[in-house]
Amino acid sequence: MKRIALEVNHLSYTFPDGTEALKDISLSVKEGEKVMIIGPNGAGKSTLLLNFNGILRGKGEVKIFGEPVTRKNLKKIRSRVGLVFQNPEDQLFMPKVVDDVAFGLFGRGVNREEIEDRVKKVLKELGLESLAEKAIHQLSLGEKKKVSLATVLVLEPDILILDEPTSGLDPGCRRWVINYLKKSDRTTVVATHDLDLAWQVGETMIIMDRGEIVARGRKEEILGNKDLLEPHGLEVPLLYLLERFSP
Ligand code: ADP
Fold this sequence. Notes:
The structure is a single chain. It is globular and about 55 Å long. Helices cover 35% and strands 26% of the residues. The termini are far apart. With 247 residues, the chain is α/β, with parallel strands linked by helices. The strands form 2 sheets. The chain has a 6-stranded mixed beta sheet with strand order 6-7-8-3-9-10, sandwiched between helices. It has a 4-stranded antiparallel beta sheet with strand order 2-1-4-5, with helices on one face. A hairpin with a 2-residue loop joins strand 4 (59-64) and strand 5. Helix 3 (97-103) packs parallel to helix 5 (141-153). The chain has 10 helices and 10 strands. It binds adenosine-5'-diphosphate. Adenosine-5'-diphosphate is lined by residues 15, 17, 19, 21, 39, 41-47.
């Protein structure tokens, strides 16, 4: 039996201006599972992800491998739950790529030699060695998104959380992200409205709209169901149709 990696029980979140962004959300993600949270803009996807590692803390419970996220254990929780923001400007703040990738390892009791090794290893794994000495501001959006992923993977999180990993990317970079996520065997949660990505990467789909979970199920059940998707501004992904109806 696989362990439950992430569990959310009756989570609600209201922003200080009164916007109810999450309303009584409950879900669970098994170890090794890849879950796609899909839904229109403003559905509450980003707010939900920010609750997974305690950046936001709503009413209700979030548990990581059985341990509730509290104010006291945030450091430990964040070492297990790696969050890649939609906008790399929120993730990257050092002048140079190597320094940004190394940054999270400082203050974790990792010695300098090991930091260098781990940074090199993750840059190699992602095929980013040639960017190591570059200044962040010289990178393209696609490169910045890849480096953002590296800053999280270097910490070897048990759960990888990504917010709109393909938004704004050209087809080549988008394919790179999809291939990476397909190959990875890490527990992964992705919030996206790129349903072709969801189809290729995910096993389980959760549809969110207006702060609520409106449907969840296996990818075929959800992504092949026009009547379920359309009321929430979503469409059956082209790749589903191609695979299903090509001779
Ligand atoms: P999604 O990621 O699905 O596009 P968000 O989680 O960003 O949705 O937003 C959910 C709701 O919360 C939206 O109505 C949005 O306008 C609102 N919201 C997001 N951030 C804030 C904030 N800082 N203050 C007030 N409302 C916010």
